[in-house]
User: What shape does this take?
Amino acid sequence: MRYELWIGLRYTRAKKRDGGGNSFISFISLTSMLGIALGVAALIVVLSVMNGFQKELRTRILGVAAHIQVSGPEGSELADWNSVAQAAAKHPRVRNAAPYIQAQGMLSFDQQVRGVMVRGVLPEAEEKVADFERHMKSGHLTGLLPGEFGIILGAELARALLVSRGDKVTLIAPQGLVTPAALLPRLKQFKVIGIFEVGMFEYDASLALVHLSDAQKLYRMEDRVSGIRLKIDDLFGAPRVGRELLLALGEGVGVSDWTRNHANFFRAVAIEKNMMFLILLLIVAVAAFNIVSTLVMAVTDKQADIAILRTLGASPRSIMQIFIVQGALIGCIGLLLGVAGGITLALNVDVVVPAIERVFGMQFLAKDVYYISELPSDLQWNDVSLIAGVSFCLTLLATLYPSWRAARVNPAEALRYE
Assistant: This one.
């Protein structure tokens, strides 16, 4: 073992018998280790929980929205949608395709009126590109049959209209009927056959599902549809697959993917995650720079030792290495403790949080207020590596000034009063 490493390790584990000064320095070293450990663990847990929320929201959004949507140019209708669907299905990464109709309307029940986004679907095909069945509170998506004019409502929309399964609501289409007397809106009565709740207010409060053929009749679209919804093998590959489909299908279609349709939302989540990382990193920075005070006191306390080493032939570089080893060891021990604790806690959030709630008799995310009532956690090893790397760099940075100061100790001045 090189003597710089041996001396640095010895200084780190100073004991009471070495004198009160060394004992105090050892205590400061311990608090620095614990500070780094707590900061690193907090970073890992918070980022894992934020990843969990992001994943949960993405899952809920994609339970209703498709990975990729193909429509006519500039959002117009598709006439020969079967051939477009078959051409899109030839792409190796496309798993399923389903036609849809998207139109606006108004629902009326008793004295309640609400604006809605009506989506006409083929139940057997829609279930292959979305997860509506998993979010059904009552009824089934397959209950939508052509010609029977059934409708499935979001939970918030049903609550606002005060309707339940089995009630009949009136759907008003904005495209009117031209008569000699006036322009009259088209009305059709639908029977509520189901209610879904995906946990996203945007959909639960404004989306209504009807059968594709019923929507075509109501909105006079004949055999046309608004577009085709596609599901691919990897949702994160949607932008690339969308560009490839745009080239393959030609100029007669428009292609959009989920990252473009919800770009602002996911960009806001990413910015929030980055800012949280920077804020919590300050905890690690404060703990890391506690090492500066530890090493400065150690240098002051060990001036005689430094002078003796210099007279024995140790170079200033070797003196620097001794104190860099001491500071780096403090940081590495704290870092390892923090990474181990953070990973353990992040993987067991679903156990730890309910236990804390039971002890204190409270609930962090009340079910009557939040759609997501449990703290989700998604530990990503890239985040762990980034946190460990940045924390280690901060630790090394904190050792530079005290080590440089130790290397400049004058042996003659240090030994004058010894």
